[in-house]
Amino acid sequence: QVQLVESGGGLVQPGGSLRLSCAASGSIFSINAMGWYRQAPGKQRELVAAITSGGSTNYADSVRGRFTISLDNSKSTVSLQMNSLKPEDTAVYYCAVNPTWGRADYWGQGTQVTVSS
Length: 117
Hints:
Blueprint: E1 3-7, E2 10-12, E3 18-25, E4 33-39, E5 46-52, E6 57-59, E7 67-71, E8 77-82, E9 91-97, E10 106-107, E11 111-115
Parallel strand pairs: 2-11
Antiparallel strand pairs: 1-3, 3-8, 4-5, 4-9, 5-6, 7-8, 9-10, 9-11
C-alpha cells in the first residue's frame, strides 16, 4: 500500500523554525512533484510549496523567502524547512504527491504546526 509518513510538526514560537519531512513508500508511480498543503481552521486548503523531480520549486507568496522545500536523491522524500515562522503559518500541513489545484494523487496524514507565543 502507498504511504506518506509525515514528521516534524509541533509547537514553536514566532520567529522560530521547524522542519517537516515526508517519506513516500509503496507502489507510487509517476512522482513528478511533491509538495505541502496546509489548512488552517476556517480557511481553504493552500499549496504552500512544491518541487518537481527536476528540482524546480514553487512557493506561495506568503512563505517565499522563509520556507525551503527539497527532495532527497530518491525523489520520494520531501522536506520543508520553515524559518521565521509566523502565527498565520499555524495549520495542519499535508504532504502531497503530484499536487495541483488543491488536489493530489496521494496525501500524508497531516501534521499540526502551531506558531504561538
